Amino acid sequence: MATEVYRPFYKPEGVIEFLGLGTDSFIGTIDETTVLKYPKTPGDKTALKILDLEAQILRKIGPHRHIIGYKGQRDDGLLLERALCGSIAQFLKDNIPTWQQSLVWARQATEAVAVIHNAGVIHCDINVNNLLLDRNLTVKLCDFQGRLLRPDGSVDKDGLARENIKSFMPPADPNYSDRKTDIFALGSTFYYILQGHEPFPDMDSFNNEEQIEARFASHQFPEMDSLLMNYVTHKCWTGEYDSAEAVLQDLGSDNPVHLGKV
């Protein structure tokens, strides 16, 4: 069994303190509004190549209120907007959001997915860890290491990011991703936001991979407390949505006071 090599945190020029980490990267604070995302191993060419793809994707998407802000590229990493309130996953560890707040997050995440899809980007790893929150608890989708598509829909570049099995549209083919696989993962994200935990909490993503895939494939979906979100989430999981805009339409008004808990 392979053991991950321990990589001590280090500070490139301008980095003040450690903030977080990803699979191949550290996140370090530059100042109150900016972070640097950089390889865990200094000069790691593979990690730098993936970060370069992320920069290309962010430039392709352009600025948007629900996409993490891109502030430029350095030789050693990416300058990104700092989300002061961390991720939704971190928020849910210590807080129970209101129904209204959960619905707002669901809509904001969906809007972000619609934006990236229209820009020819497949995220390939939509989850509560990659939904960051600014000081106003506004969602910012981050970690763009998925696929950049050509105008004809073929894959131009692939950062090889892939979903956890609990967000993977069956059959779980690591070589295939499209809008519907992103929307499937969005459904699992909705479930986590509303229920406070991932689908099938009694099953382990690694030890029960085949059973989890079988449940999704046979439409043995976990139920949710909200009838509206149960309906939308199950449609994400069954592949009924062709676009994130269609998901937004089912989520209704962006003013949650008009929706209530139905």
TrEMBL record:
CDD domains per record: PKc (cd00180)
Secretion signal span: none
Pfam families from the UniProt entry: Pkinase
Domain of life, source organism: Eukaryota
GO cellular component: nucleus
GO aspect biological process, one term: mitotic DNA damage checkpoint signaling
Boundaries of every Protein kinase domain copy: 1-262
Single Gene Ontology MF annotation: ATP binding
UniProt name for this protein: Protein kinase domain-containing protein
Lineage start: Eukaryota, Fungi, Dikarya, Ascomycota, Pezizomycotina
